[in-house]
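Worked Example 4.2. Consider the chain below.
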Amino acid sequence: MVAADEPAAGVGKDPNLPGDGDATAVLPVKVTDGAVRVEPDLDLLRGSGTVYPVYIDPPVGLGALERTKISSDGDRFWQFDGDMGVGRCGSADGYYCGPGYIDRMLFEFAPNNLNGKHVLDASFNAYETWSFNCDAKWLNLVRTNNISEATRWPGPATIDHMGDRLVSAGRGTNCSPEQPPSWIEFHDDPAQLNENLTPTVQALADGKMSRLTLMLWAKDEDDPRAWKRFDDNAELKVTYVPRPGVPTDVGLIPGDGKTAYCRTNASDPLIVTRLDPMVQARVQTQVEPKKGEERGSLQAGFRAARKLTDGTWEEIWSDEGPPDGYSPDNTLEKLRMTNRTDGTEYRYRARTQSRWSSGDKSGELASSFSPWCYFKIDSTAPKVPQITANGPYTECVTDVCEGAGGPGVPGSFTFKPNAADGDIVGYRWKLLTSAGAKEVSGETYTEKGVIPSLTGTQVLSVEAKDVRKRFGPPAEFTFKVSPAEGATGRWHFDDGAPGSGITVAKDTATVGTRHDATLYTAGAGWSTMARRGEADQSLWLDSATPANQTAYAATSAAAVNTKDSFTLSTWVYLTDASSSRMVLTTPGDQAQAFALYYSSSSRGWVFSHTLADSKTPVFVKSEAEKTDPVLHVWTHLAAVFDTHADTDPANDTIQLYVNGRPQGTAVKLAASAASQNATYQPWTAAGGLQFGRSFIREASGQYFRGRIDESAVWQRPLTEEEIRQEVRLEQDGLPANELVAQWDATTATGTEIGEGTPYPNPSMKLSATGAVLDDAGNGLVLDGTAGYASAQGPVVDESGSFTVSARVQLSAQALAGKPVGYKAQVAGQRSGGESSWALWVIKPAEGFYQWQFTRTATDAAGKVTRNSTVTPRADLAETDTWVDVTGVFDAQEAWDWADPVDPAQTEDGLGKMHLYVGSADKPSRTSPGFDVVQQGSGELAMGRGTAAGTTGHYLPGMLDQLRVWTGAMTRDQVSDQVLAAA
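Applying the procedure from the previous section yields the following structure tokens:
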């Protein structure tokens, strides 16, 4: 191989002809797009994977996430910088480039910045810095399978033809006319139906493939005159419009009020007193536009139907808003219906519609419809009742909304009939931010238990009920809840790295006095296994040396007054359940006032309160509903001691929460004490807050084994909603996630796939037959009959939030031979005769494949008690290409059976499931909820699974990697953390 400035002996050479040596510098070049002219920064492009700022929105430019140049002589240039060659580097016309090896260049693009976009046009642009001579030569652009650092000649298999160009650039003044370096654009030619770049980029945007890899190569690789060089800054230029998303805030204003309602239960329609009710919908793009991005030209499409006597529905009204144009994303559109018929039942729904134009082309797009909102027009129904506040909250009036109370602070309100009504016998009320409604009786009723769970503006909605058991339209009382007092102590335990010698954990709270915690004994330290992800630390109390297993941390003074209401919150990672393990406590003189711990006798998490500071203490406990918690996983614990803002100890309660869920009902301390022939009185413990050790009968013990992280205390009872917010560990509005398991088949050898995180997870072992690791480093190849890889699980606490993602390539040929109804497991955790969670591919019809994410709960006998499935509607799973499939279980996310509608259910719940294909959140018509606590155990497998008592369901294709996170990812996090990770 001859360097650019080193002519071969005895061979004439143009001194400007670059070979394959060091990259030559390329000056910035001006690129024009309409009226926009900018100077691109080539350093910004190299390996950035970010939006290239040349193209102002729209279009966008995407730099390659990964790139390589491969040569027929075996050389590889992974993530190369500068320019490299394409074609045969040989000799011709008295000039010499090299000994005749052939080069090809490959660029791989991620879909991150295309999520939610409808692609109108796409082109591939490569900057040609040199050509062998002045004659134009053909270049081919093809789509291939994905690349890795192990990719070698001749490169991955070709999938499709993207385009070709007859060009020559970069010879400068050696040609006439001059041929300066130039961008070469590959763009679909309508006359050549085999050029598919735009639809391929659309498939990338839709998440049907995890990466798009394009290979640039000389059409005639035998002709050295076709030799060319291109810089490392190739990009995709994409013109797009945002896809419309399902609208939010869909509902009707039943009378002359301001708030819209949507009753999704057909048997309980909203009562409307106006013949021409106002409907509304907030138009949305499928993905929220980022700052500076196009916000769409959107309108709401309204549809209404009436119920016929035979029970069927007939569409009777439709309209669009705004009626005279279009609005940007997140605009609330309102429209008054034309007069309807009194005494008739109706239903209404909406969708987001958009219109686009680009050049001489234009078109329209529409989202799916929202769920139906059912209503009945009844002018004789009860009128809106009167609501009077008795304190502490006051009604908001125009421009004045004063805060009062706080989360968990009850308000008192009196409900009275409308002056026009004389037959009111009761009311139904709810806070619009809370699930469920409460029905009460009486012509006039005072409700003292209106308890807001969150700060900010709240709306109390009250409907009157008459003697005919009819409810009327709701009255609304808007009030503001004052911000809650913050934590009085918060310890992130990110103060030092392992081995740093730092022995103090700072209290970062801002309320009250600071209480830093000191680490004690050589067995206390820091761990990089921490709940907030990479670069975070946690408190380590897990020495393998027996002499160091009495480690703990403690504050010098009490962090909470144990006589008044308080809340504890912390993350724990338990590694040893052979004995009871203390997490948090505060000691008195002879006993601890409270204890949050693992009990070896109860085999579960416990929050206990000690009735008195005594050498013979008596305890009252709030215990976890599920025993035998999983070891080596992150679990969130919270505990609330509530005096209910009075001095009567008979009202005092304790409540344990695990992963944001209350464990049973709150335990009344006085009543429980009486059942033990004891007496309860709240008392104050003066000792410092202990992390990892107990204090009973004047002695310490029950030392914790594992890790403790993100601990906090409040001098008030948090509401359940506040605890759920705390579990999410939000920062800048995004929840924290921790990668706790990763098996990467592309880096594995032999018969095992090693696990790549610091967590103590085993390697995945390959089955004896049907599973092999591809020599080219492309992943685990499975025959669909007997091949799989497995390890002992689980790796997450499945009662909490988690995210699982697999990169998979389905074999179209193998799937074609499977019967209709076949389902194959991509990855999953076994639970007896079922998969507790699993990613699947199913074959509902010949030539039709779909992705699935499932959760299944079983009882002690193995009977299925709950099954929830997310299946993208009408979306086909792509075959013979790599796809990232991600399942998210958000244990803290509330859901109702109206989203989507399940006529058999009306209950609300916690625990929502999402399936992402690429970075696209794929909706399903079946319920996404899963509100049953379930924990898998045993085999964690890639390529086979368990269902209905049968283990099999083998996957035909390839698997690249499986990753598992503690925490539920958002769509943006899936895009940034799953797809962008090289």
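The chain is about 5% helix and 45% strand. The domain at 738-979 is CATH 2.60.120.200 (Jelly Rolls). Compare this with Example 4.1 before moving on.
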